[in-house]
Amino acid sequence: MIGLQAQTAAPPLAADAAPIVEVRGLSKIYPGGVEALNDISLSFPEGELTTLLGPSGCGKTTLLKIIAGLLQPTGGEVRVRGRAVTGPGPERSFVFQDFALMPWATVIRNAAFGLELRGVPRSEREAVAEKYIASVGLKGFETKYPHELSGGMRQRVGLARALAVNADIVMMDEPFSAVDEQTRRQFQEDMLRLVAQERKTFLFVTHSIEEAVYVSNRIVLLSRRPSRVSEIIDVNLPRDSEPDQIRRHPAYLDTVEGIWQTLKRYLD
Amino acid sequence: MTPTTREFVPAAVPLGRPASSPHSLQTLASNPYALRIVSFAIVALAWEWAGRVPVSPSFPTFGETAAALFSMLADGSLPAAFANTLVPLAIGIALSSVVGVAIGVAMGLNEKVEWFGVPIFIVLQAAPLAALVPLLVLAYGIGVTTKVFVVCIMAMPVIVLNSFKAVRHTPHSLIEMGRSFMANRPQLIGKIILRSATPVIFAGLRLGTAAGFVGAILAELLVTPTGVGDIITYSQSTADYPRMYAAIAGVIIVSVLFIEGLGWVEQRFLRPEKRSAS
């Protein structure tokens, strides 16, 4: 659908970019004794799309929600631009796995909701929301309600809402898991375009290896619960190629295979 | 009410099938009003039949009852009686709605209020409230106050418990969404929790209103015979059963109309997404 022409030149190497998010010695034990994370330390470079990848139930969503400030860690800390995280902040926004749209609100109100909560006047916030609704491909659907949209379209509203608050860090928790495969591919391509346009830091959680390799600059492989960092992989794909060429590129296929070989160890 | 059309039917034909359908019965059945009229007609016919058998000498036919209803409407006795009955009813329902929703929402938002309040309303909901009426008469006499109380104890528990459950069952992800976009507590309550709770709160209000109507008539039967309750007791004592049943039917009609009106208000003003769907 939308090509990758807008894509910037080859992404900088992960090591060159300054970390915007730092995770130090993070652990999380849920009430009841389930140990989700065990002493995780990680840093996320600015302006890149980093994916947290791991087997189901490995605590990747938990890690993302702790960085978002939605969950409190049992031990360790998260720093964003050097400041310790104690709760949600305006520099971070979140895209939810189940969309989390308000069924009683129109697309535009949902997309503008973050700005509404910040007290931005109506005409101003709707202008911003309109722009992002258009950029996620939903122009003309502003006055529709979520139940009138397909799953993929609903998640686009969720993405527009997260972009509209102009946060530096956009976190996405398995945003495509409730979406069918065709929509998912189209969505991945649109997302790459947005990542290039927006120059934000994206943290992305998925359990799909292909998806992780296709969209990321950098992949953090997590082990089974309690999660530890198993491996960090820099992905270098020819981003200026056509989508189907990328998906056939040896670097893409090799990375997918390599990750599969690693993850296999965590299967029973 | 939306008819049951499947989502993937593309054309905008919400009602009925194409006219070429050989089954005119099917066409009739897919008209939302036809089945309601049929259902009403069956009940009316069964009533008429039972009255003619007769199942009991004190059970009038549907025709007799309807005639009595119209004669009471014509001579103004029924509207006058309703004007009487509606005073404690309206006060009681208004009071139960405002106070009940407030208590229920408070219980939903705060666990301490919940632990304090829920047992009271569960007991009230389970208690045979009619048995409490003599107690209320002792405490508050035979005036309007007692009748308002009867309406309230009938209507309040279901309103409170529904509001409580509605607030408590706000989808977790919506609350998380609000928090992640930096909603403060009042915003979280006003813009997310209450809006999400609206449908179930209104379901409680409808049930509470129905119970309140029962309470208002109960009060007139058990405390002092006024209004519609007076017509019922008086007609019963003079064996004028059509009038008695007509008064009861009148209560049911007003109650149903009021509850439907409440549903309309909810859809019209608080559920924009339902409006656009129809």
UniProtKB/TrEMBL annotation, chain A:
Gene3D superfamilies: P-loop containing nucleotide triphosphate hydrolases (3.40.50.300)
Domain ABC transporter: start-end pairs: 21-249
UniProt keywords, alphabetically: ATP-binding, Nucleotide-binding, Transport
SMART domains: AAA (SM00382)
GO molecular function: ATP binding; ATP hydrolysis activity
Similarity comment: Belongs to the ABC transporter superfamily.
UniProt name for this protein: Nitrate ABC transporter ATP-binding protein
From TrEMBL, chain B:
UniProt cross-references to SUPFAM superfamilies, sorted A to Z: MetI-like (SSF161098)
Primary localization class, coarse: membrane
InterPro entries documented for this protein: MetI-like (IPR000515), MetI-like_sf (IPR035906)
Bilayer topology: Multi-pass membrane protein
Cellular compartment(s): Cell membrane
Pfam families: BPD_transp_1 (PF00528)
Recorded superkingdom: Bacteria
Gene Ontology annotations of biological process type: transmembrane transport
Domain ABC transmembrane type-1 residues, every copy: 82-263
Keywords for this protein: Cell membrane, Membrane, Transmembrane, Transmembrane helix, Transport
UniProt GO cellular component terms: plasma membrane
PROSITE patterns according to UniProt: ABC_TM1 (PS50928)
Gene3D superfamilies assigned to the protein according to its UniProt record, in alphabetical order: MetI-like (1.10.3720.10)
Membrane-spanning residues: 33-50, 89-109, 116-142, 148-167, 200-224, 244-265
UniProt family annotation: Belongs to the binding-protein-dependent transport system permease family.
Protein name: ABC transporter permease
Species: Alsobacter metallidurans
